[in-house]
């Protein structure tokens, strides 16, 4: 049997050939012939010329020329071998000539004008063969490559045409795909590896059965590895060349971290905009991120989006969603960060209504005529206890309602259901195809299959603002699962505690929005018993435990007691300063003359120097309005005393009009003193004693607004009894008194008075004493 086959461009693994087989079984002769044409270039196979060696003797081996000639075959075609080579580096367009010889047999074939880099040739078994390929054979720059081998040992398997790698938890997983001709021939294959940058491969390769995934364990997750794969030799695979080197990236072990999740209401009603931002470890090399999102209700659709930036924006309905984010490279996917986007309730009331027929059938109605624009809808319903909502999608183009029946899970009594209607713009199918920007929410409402009365009562009942006839009550609301229906309000039951067997009970209804109420029209000082219950459409629930409170008494209250106690404490603490301040404001004290700047105590004896002035006052100034006492410490010289007295007397009388003759008399007397008239002198000690005696014994008293008798007596020195004769002598002969050595501490005495005429006798007495 003779078979001829030609192949061009083997490395690309694309064959374009026509096969023609002719079999003759009658005489055991089989003839087959096949002709292949490539790119309008006809390749001829002819016997070699006798002088073939001399024709190509100018061609030489060169590293920049054609090189790496290799010939091999497959187990299923033992007589067919493929010779392949690599192009030279300095030629733009090449044609090749391939010459194949059997060394042990006179066999030589020449293949001219080959434009590819491979050629299928026919060879005999068990013979040594030699192959030569010439590049630019007709040129002076002709180069060549040579191959020698035994035909029977040229059966080759591999290398693989496709390899996939994945890494996880310190393991490397390898999936290998082989050429179709090698699938049945290869039984095992091996994987060898080394760290990037290392010169040594692993000590032992990992062998795996063909068709199964190969696992390399105990690898450093953070290292990058270089991997090569080859089959394990057997009878059908005598040659197993190594594959090209594959670079396997490091394993991603860090989970992304969500740093910002912002949710906004979109301009289109029923949509919300979700902006999500995350970060990832900088030391782990990754190619991008995988964002996977699906509905929490359990619909089959899942949408996976790839992004190279750590952020994404989504347009979603008000439904609940699950979302996870992970980083990836060519061999690894990082652990995912998971996040649940909660359902958002549509607060607009009155858009949906539900009528329940039985535990597996209900009808949903919607207000607007949506069928003009939408025909695909989805309904989701769930209880508060269920994390996953049930759903049903449907097509509706006739009415603004839909009967949903055959529910997979029957409705439960006394459970509150939240139901949401979504509308979908994609009319091709009502089953959701993708998640992002696929649907919008129309409305949400709540319903019960069967309502019941509350099984619990309000708790934490307390009172406040207790008065004579009212009290404020407040309480805690009931949990939703204990109401078992829509709460319609509260009932306050109260009665007089002492007369609860004979008096009727009173009830007051409170709206469900409030949890406090003020009871009025109560009796003062009376105890009341209070109980509170809630009610739904099914009726009133259980009552709370009885609470007793008492209104305040008429005559006394805790507030009054506290007020009195506070006032008493305030008086005890701040009473004395307050009383003193009030006394100074309301009852001003009369000044003490003893402490006045114009009156001081005189502890020692004193002498009066103005006796004559007082005598004149007695005669001429009967209506006195003041009494001045002037202290004088200095000794009056004898020469100046006569002239001083008239001046003092004149100053004292500037407010009182004296008779002109009296003033002239004073002036005349002064002149007489100046002229040196002799004045009878009295001894100073005699005069002092006389003055002291007369002042102490004088019975006069002043009646005025300012000065009292005690004050004046305090100002006068105490001493010997009154000497009336001395006083009379002084009155009768004042000119005989000697003023030379008089030391007086009382220069002037004048009384302020508005006394009537009958009081002048007292003034006379004073004048007589002086």
From TrEMBL:
Fibronectin type-III domain location: 159-253, 457-554
Hydrolase in keyword set: no
Keywords per UniProt: Glycoprotein, Membrane, Receptor, Repeat, Signal, Transmembrane, Transmembrane helix
Source species, domain of life: Eukaryota
Its membrane topology: Single-pass type I membrane protein
CDD domains per record: FN3 (cd00063)
Regions crossing the membrane: 21-41, 556-579
GO cellular component: plasma membrane
Subcellular location: Membrane
Family of this protein: Belongs to the type I cytokine receptor family. Type 2 subfamily.
Name of the protein described by the UniProt record: Interleukin-31 receptor subunit alpha
Organism: Scomber scombrus
